[in-house]
Amino acid sequence: MTQIITPDLCDEFPEVQVVAPGFNNYGGNKAFGGEIVTVKCFEDNSVVKEQVGQPGNGRVMVVDGGASRRHALLGDMLAEKAANNGWAGLIIYGCVRDVDEIGNTALGVQALGTHPRKSEKRGLGDLNVPVTFHGVTFHPGHYVYADNNGIVVSEKPLV
């Protein structure tokens, strides 16, 4: 894959949308990108758990967790499963846990922060619906690219 550098993508493709700052990089892969799959959930990672068990095919899961800072939506076991199943990464509008292990996993992970409490499991959540946070709407089938500089979104593949 071509190296992902979001400032270069912004320069070459000025039409990209740029997600407002506030995300931290936790994964072992500090730059990642791919086709978007969306999950909308709140303090319940049931759909995330289901999806990381499916073939990722180099896609990126964008999880709208409602910015909750009371539960983590991703931990080391799900991150490892995602990496093993070919996901490029996850962008979580919420928290993650087990960050030392996630940092050793061949997966891109960005989130708002960390929290040691696991999420609830009620089987709730929506898959592949448009989600909006930090000034950008993420549509399933569009593309997202992330690195230590930020996150950009495009309707078409850029790399």
TrEMBL record:
<dbReference type="Pfam" id="PF03737">
    <property type="entry name" value="RraA-like"/>
</dbReference>
<dbReference type="InterPro" id="IPR010203">
    <property type="entry name" value="RraA"/>
</dbReference>
<protein>
    <recommendedName>
        <fullName>4-hydroxy-4-methyl-2-oxoglutarate aldolase</fullName>
        <ecNumber>4.1.1.112</ecNumber>
        <ecNumber>4.1.3.17</ecNumber>
    </recommendedName>
</protein>
<dbReference type="InterPro" id="IPR005493">
    <property type="entry name" value="RraA/RraA-like"/>
</dbReference>
<comment type="function">
    <text>Catalyzes the aldol cleavage of 4-hydroxy-4-methyl-2-oxoglutarate (HMG) into 2 molecules of pyruvate. Also contains a secondary oxaloacetate (OAA) decarboxylase activity due to the common pyruvate enolate transition state formed following C-C bond cleavage in the retro-aldol and decarboxylation reactions.</text>
</comment>
<dbReference type="InterPro" id="IPR036704">
    <property type="entry name" value="RraA/RraA-like_sf"/>
</dbReference>
<keyword id="KW-0456">Lyase</keyword>
<comment type="similarity">
    <text>Belongs to the class II aldolase/RraA-like family.</text>
</comment>
<comment type="subunit">
    <text>Homotrimer.</text>
</comment>
<keyword id="KW-0479">Metal-binding</keyword>
